[in-house]
Amino acid sequence: MNHIHPHPETHLSSSAMLQDIVIGLSDGLTVPFALAAGLSGAVQSSALVITAGLAEIVAGSIAMGLGGYLAGRTEVEHYQAELDREHREVQEVPHVERAEVDELLTEMGLSEATREQAVRELTSDPDQWVRFMMKYELGLEKPDPKQAWKSAVTISMAYAVGGLIPLSAYFLTATPAEGLVWSAVITIVCLLVFGYIKSRITGQPPVMGALKMAGTGALAAAAAFLVAKQFEGHF
User: Fold this and answer.
1) What is the pLDDT of residues 160-182, one digit of tens each?
2) How many CB atoms lie within 10 A of CB 70?
3) Which pLDDT value is given to residue 153?
4) What are the distances in angstroms from CA 103 to CA 115, 146, 218?
5) Is pLDDT of 4 > 60?
6) What pTM was computed for the model?
7) Which residue, 49, 82, 110, 213, shows the most beta carbons closer than 10 Å to its own?
8) How confident is the model at residue 229 (pLDDT cuts 50, 70, 90)?
9) How far apart are CA 154 and CA 234, in angstroms?
10) CA distance 207 to 193
11) Within a 10 A sphere around the Cβ of 213, how many other Cβ atoms?
């Protein structure tokens, strides 16, 4: 007899990638935009703004990618260290670990008779025992060992794409001042759209999320522009 699942479920399988894209794009849209705005207030050449902007995008994407890689490696190393510790404790102090299993099952609301049977079955296999403790005592899920490289590439590319958006206006305009106007319009619109989508995906109020992200980018750019104006002609 064929068994058909009555309720097929769809889950977001790429949540880690989505998170990395959000990190890369949000910083990529904001930091190069602020840099270009600051330079627009201090120089009269669009070529200088473009050169500095491209240099920042390259450096920023490498730095962000490296940060993502290190974060992923740290997660893997932390999980492995805790896994090794749990294996040692299961071997060296099994009575303590059994008591912890029983305590966890008590918190789940299992009866004493059910707990006794569950403890016997869970602790009969050391690997199963350790997996249970890792998940329910420490709240740790086994990370993908390849995630560090995936995060590095995803964040780096997202940052580069985000950074090229505000910089693109300077390629198409004659002066930094004109480029800044179009860059601001393009970037604010992108930040509003990106903030809205990000908030919808993460379950936050979308309109407020869009306004917060656009406001952050605009504030950073305005601050950079005003600082550059204050020092214009002093160097």
Assistant:
1) 998 998 898 898 888 888 888 88
2) 13
3) 92
4) 9, 34, 52
5) no
6) 0.73
7) 49
8) low
9) 40
10) 10
11) 23
